[in-house]
Amino acid sequence: MIKVKIGAIASGSGSNFEAIVKSTENGILKDKAIVEVLICNKAGAYCMERAKNHNIPSVLIESNKHKGNREEFDAKFIEVLDKYECELIILAGYMRFVSAMFINHFKGNVMNIHPSLLPSFKGMHAHRDVLDYGVKVTGCTVHFVDPHEDHGPIIMQKCVKVYDNDTEDTLGPRVLEWEHKVFPKCIELYCDKRLHIEGRIVKIDGEVKL
Ligand code: GAR
Fold first, then answer.
1. How far does the chain reach from its first CA to its final CA, in angstroms?
2. Domain extent listing, the chain
3. Against a cut of 0.90, is the pTM above it?
4. Beta bridge partners of 113
5. H or E, element range at 186
6. Mutational test site, ligand 1, from 15, 113, 125, max ligand atoms within 8 Å of CB
7. Residue 159: how many CA atoms within 13 Å on its side-chain side?
8. Does 114 participate in catalysis according to the annotation?
9. Using one digit for the tens of pLDDT, what is the confidence trace for 51-63?
10. Which residues line ligand 1 (CB under 6 A)?
């Protein structure tokens, strides 16, 4: 089987990035996918260390040093991702929008993970918003990316209970544990060509077990 070449983009700690890398090394993505490169937009972000630890090339393209428009910025990413011949792009804690130009360049093969049950609690502070609102169930969502924030066709979601005494520090890690399982699973479904997008509905061949 020819491995799907993945390009990862992250802004922060990179625990999702590392979970995916580990799945390619010794988990469900072994023989199916390979992470070719990590691009990070924040100097000093820990995701770069994680890439180094796994011998994955990493490139820093700092968003706060960039003066041009979004497409010009995204073009720098495309240049790197094309150099590594990436087919599937994963946004693993990337805290910026990507342009329609970027998404089209990769034929829509761009996935994002978000730490809530979309369409609820979009944006940068999902756990805080969940706790402020008082919902009893939250979770995580992996979706294909479209030009709108946290909006594209949903591939998979996992529910996580919210407890009365939860804080961002207790809820966040509990959701993250599931993110680390759900994101590799969605990539596996992609590699196995089991995902079919019809409008904004993603149909999945067969039963999915996490
Ligand atoms: C994850 O919880 C991810 O879902 C979230 O950022 C965190 C990154 O953690 N993404 C977003 O909020 C995107 N809107 P990580 O760097 O340890 O993977």
1. 22
2. 4-125+140-159+178-204
3. yes
4. 142
5. helix 168-191
6. 113
7. 6
8. yes
9. 999 999 999 999 9
10. 10, 12-16, 92-93, 113-115, 126, 150, 176, 179
